[in-house]
Each structure stands twice: as C-alpha cells, then as structure tokens.
Amino acid sequence: MSSCHLGPNLPTWLQTQTSLWYLYISNSGIIGVAPTWLWKWASHINGLIDLSNNQISGNLSGVWLNNTSIHLNSNCFTGLLPALSSNVIVLNMANNSISGPISQFLCQKLNRTSKLETLDLSNNDLSGELPQCWKSWPSSSHLNLGNNNLSGKITNSIRSLISLTTLHLRNNGFSRSIPSSFRNCSSLGLLDLILDLADNELSGFIPKCLNNLSLMAAIKTPHGLFTDLQYSSYEMESLMLMTVGRELEYKGILKYVGMIDLSSNNLSGSIATELSQLAGLRFLNLSRNHLRGLMLEKIGRMTSLLSLDLSMNHLLGEISQSLVDLTFLNHLNLSYNQLWGRIPLSTQLQTFDAFNYIGNAQLCGAPLTKNCTTDDESQSMDAIEENEGFEMPWFYISSMGLGFIVCFWGVCGALIFKKNWRYAYFQFVYYMRDWVYVVVATRLNWFHDNLRSL
C-alpha cells in the first residue's frame, strides 16, 4: 500500500489484521500522533514494518520494537530511542527529532546476541559520547549516525564491529585524533563502501595504513562485489552522499560507491602515500583541512577515481603528472593551496572550470587565464609540430597489418579453444559495461542537478 493515500489517520482496521508478516504504508499521507494501540499491535508482525515518509508524530520513549526490519524514517517522532528486540536486523529512524544520549540505546541489555545489521539514526538530535558498547552489536555492517550532536572522541572499541562496511559520522562534534583502531586498520579490512568522518573536529594525521582496507584497494567487478561479503538484507537502495562537490542522491548503484570523506576537520601533516594504492576508490575528499606537503606523486594509480577534492589545504609543489591517467575523473578541485607550475595537459584537466584551480598564485596554463613562460609554450608547439610532421614509412604500415592479423587470430583462437580464457574475457567485458553505466549515471546526476539550479 505504499504511496496510496490512506491518511490523514492511520487506518483503524489494521487492528483486525492478526496474521500480517509485512506492513508497507510508506508515503501514504498519514498525519498526526501514532495511536496508542500501534506499537503493541505491530510487535506481532514478524517481518517488515515501513511507516516512512509520512508525518506521524509521537514520543517513542519506552516503546519496544520486535520486527525484523523497521523503517520509521522521515516522520516527526520525538523522545528517546526505543528499546529493541534481538530479532531486529534493520532499524532506520533517520530524519526525525529523536533526542537523548546515544549511550542509553547502544548499551541496552538484550536477552541474547543482537542480529542488527543496519542502523540509521542520522539527522536527529542525539547527543553525548560514543560508549564502549559496540560488542553488543557484532553483526552491524551499516552504521549511520551523521548529522546529530554527538561529541567526544571516536572510541577504539568501534573495531569490535568486524563486519562494518559503511560508516557515517558526518557533521557531529567529534574531536581529538582519528582512533588507533583506524590507524592500525587491522580490524577494519572489510570497510568497503563508505568511510565518512567529514564535518567534525578531528585532528592529527591521516592513517598511513588505509591501503589495508583491502576491498577499497581492489578494483571491484560486478561478479565479485557481493560474493566476497555477506551484505545485510537491507541493501541501502538510496542514500544522500556528498561526492562531486554537492549532495546527490544515489539510487541503485550504491554497490559501486567507494568513498573516503575526511573533509572539514583539523587534520594535518602530509597525505599518506599509501592512499594511492586504493585503486577501487571512487570518491576522495580531503578538503578543508591543514594538510601540507606535495600532492600524491602516484595518484594516477587510483584509476577508479570519479571525484577528487583536495581544496583549501596547504599543499605545495607541482600538480602530479600522473593525474592525467585518471580517465574517469569528472570532478576535481585543487583550489586554494600553494601549487605552482603548469597544469598538466590532458583531455580532461583542461575541461574543468578555472574555479577548481584558483587560489594557487603560481599555477599557469589552461583553463586558467595566466599563461606559462614563452619557452614552455614554444617547446610544447615544437613537440606538436614534430608529431604532425612525422610520416610513417610503408614498411612499417605493412608490418603493422601483418602483426594485426597474427595477433587477431592468436587472441581469437585462444578464446575459442580455452574455456577459462573465454570466461575471463567476457567477465572483463561485463565489468567495462558496468563501468560505463556508473560513469554515465554520475554524469546524469550532475547534469540534472545543474538543470534544476537554472
């Protein structure tokens, strides 16, 4: 009954339904305080209950929830977080007005080990420090506490979440350094999709061992993306992410998102060179910190990058020449650093707006209006003229034709007679097809967002 207009009140005939496994009345125009009978009645539904995207209000203090999958997000609920049964696998209460200390919820006593895999409490008014109770939630894989009023340090005990694949702590008041459990990274090897610690007050250095996040270091293929990990039954089909300089909603392609966002903190030191080993990372945002030193020299190894933001730091030196190897890059911001020299020539770097390079007084070359030295320009023109004037002898042309024929039948013959080679080849073709889909989907999101802003 999702998106059917059932409101403004919750239908009373629901009380007569005693054998329901699922209640799905999201976005149904329901307004007002939840009736007193609702929670006791709902506790008998073993499966999913989805009341999201309505305007249901009421105080949830003292409420006990027993359903396998609970979606109360985008309503007007208040009070403390409800108590949970150990049977709950998914709890989504984002975009409400829930308040109180987070510790009271995380440290609640359960009758047996919790099965909770997905917990989304973002965009509420939760407060206090993170407690040392993570061992009570051993199955948690998706954790979103972003946009609350949490404070203190990120506790080391978060390493107890050995199944964690996405972590959102954006826009809170966390301070001090990134915890040692992140610096060691030994217990966070499964962190695969998202690490979002942006908009806090974290200090210290970027951990040098982030390359130990092995699943971000690997280029993901569609075949192996979900076979290596046992993802929860809640697939997070839609999520708002700050990825290409603006907040965008990602639908249906979250399994291709690999993101590290440490922006808007007080991090210092140089950018850990180990980051360049994360070949599967697609979004990297280190902007608005106090990072110093050179750009990553081998950043071109991060071949999956779609978005890179290093703006508003104190980086110096020339822009790494290997940046031209990031052929899928569609968002780049290097503004307000201390970079100098010529912007490397490529088919992409000159297509970005000059705004993405401003604030670097010694940078020159397109797309900036500041020209580089005459000597550099003449050398570049000489190289172009040499290439244009080069004529290939017929001997080499005929050799290339013969080589093409030999190589063509060599490859095709191997594919015909070698089954495992043929399987690997078509798996690669499917991977490239999905790569193109991700890039096109991201471009369309950017294009539609620009159209709306006109």
Number of strands: 29
Q: Identify the overall geometry.
A: globular
Q: Helix count, per DSSP?
A: 7
Could you give the distance between the termini? Answer: 36 Å
What is the percentage of strand-forming residues? 15-25%
Share of residues in helices: 10-25%
Helix/strand/pairing category: alpha/beta
- Give the averaged pLDDT, no decimals: 79
Strand order of the largest sheet: 1-3-6-9-11-13-15-17-21-23-25-27
Low-confidence segments, given as residue ranges, are: 222-237, 375-392
Q: State Rg.
A: 26 Å
**Largest pleated sheet:** 12 strands, parallel
Model description:
The protein is an alpha/beta fold and 454 residues long. It is built from seven helices and 29 strands. It has helices at residues 38-42, 102-106, 180-184, 214-217, 374-389, 394-417, 419-453; strands spanning 22-24, 31-33, 48-50, 55-59, 64-65, 69-71, 76-78, 83-84, 90-92, 99-101, 118-120, 125-129, 142-144, 149-152, 166-168, 173-177, 194-196, 201-205, 238-242, 247-251, 259-261, 266-269, 283-285, 290-293, 307-309, 314-318, 331-333, 338-342, 362-364. A twelve-stranded parallel beta sheet has the order 1-3-6-9-11-13-15-17-21-23-25-27, with no helix packed on it. Strand 19 and strand 20 form a beta hairpin. Helix 6 (394-417) packs across helix 7. The radius of gyration is 26 Å and the shape is globular.
